Amino acid sequence: MRVVCAGDCGVDRYVNLGLDRPGGITLNFAANAREVCAPTDEILVLTALGTDRESRLVREALERLGLGGEIVEQPGATSIQYIDQGTRGEKRFLRYEAGVLAEWRPGERELALVATADLLVAPVYRQIHGFFEALLAAPCPGLRAVDFLDLSDVDDPPGFVARFAGRIDVGFFGLHSADVALIADLERLARRLGRLFVVTLGAHGSLALGGTERVTCQAVPVPLVVDTTGAGDSFAAAFLAEYCRSRDVARSLELGAARAALTIQSVGAFPWE
């Protein structure tokens, strides 16, 4: 299987720790996918990096993790996510600087890679809407999975998802258990279009929407939550690795929950010294 992970590979800057780590949604997903997918599966990355010091950290991570693909260099800054941690390990996003990724659009080489994917995975958020739309407009023969995050940066969350839902197969959402109305809207949309939507709810577990009944899964308890950064990315990697093999939604939720539980017991979404 050829997995193409498109989007942000950058730096997670932990303000409270004075620490820079390679990260970003796409790199977090790809690093976990390399661990949970079959050794024969190709895990490829499609992204743009700047020419700054931070780009060297990301390139080192890509090399050490054995992740190839199309890594485009653009004059400017690499994306940075500023993170603070709460007393119980919960991440608090302070701000995000998209850097060169904000204006970059995939060209012929990058879109040619998308056209070979058995699985295409990408996030969407306000700062990279242009990149995401260009990516989704490209032909792709495989399964398309999109991480919509928590939808907090759009005015009409159900309408925003509906705009793209016809062109994807699986959607991921990181919501709260109190988002009852939004979850119901997503469920109606998933059923109407015949799509699979997966909602993670932190300690409240996860849901799969789109079938005749919801499929639920409890979160896996951990002795100590150290850092929740990247939990959703690692969940999605384990979920899709199983779902692409078996189409077993319940089993995919279980493996996603187990992977997320492993992630939150250390700093960052994947091991890095």
Rounded Rg: 17 Å
> Based on the structure, what is the oligomeric state of the protein chains?
single chain
| Unreliable residue runs | none
CATH class: Alpha Beta
Coarse morphology: globular
Blueprint of the fold:
Elements: E1 2-6, E2 10-14, E3 19-23, H1 25-36, E4 42-49, H2 53-65, E5 68-73, E6 80-85, E7 91-97, H3 108-114, E8 119-123, H4 129-136, E9 143-147, H5 157-165, E10 170-174, H6 180-193, E11 196-200, E12 206-209, E13 215-217, H7 231-246, H8 249-263
Parallel strand pairs: 1-4, 1-8, 2-6, 4-5, 8-9, 9-10, 10-11
Antiparallel strand pairs: 2-3, 6-7, 11-12, 12-13
Structural account:
There is one protein chain. This protein has 273 residues and is an alpha/beta fold. It has eight helices and 13 strands. It has helices at residues 25-36, 53-65, 108-114, 129-136, 157-165, 180-193, 231-246, 249-263, and strands at 2-6, 10-14, 19-23, 42-49, 68-73, 80-85, 91-97, 119-123, 143-147, 170-174, 196-200, 206-209, 215-217. The strands form two sheets. Strands 5-4-1-8-9-10-11-12-13 form a nine-stranded mixed β-sheet, with helices on both faces. Helix 1 (25-36) crosses helix 7 (231-246) and helix 7 (231-246) runs antiparallel to helix 8. The longest helix has 16 residues, at 231-246.
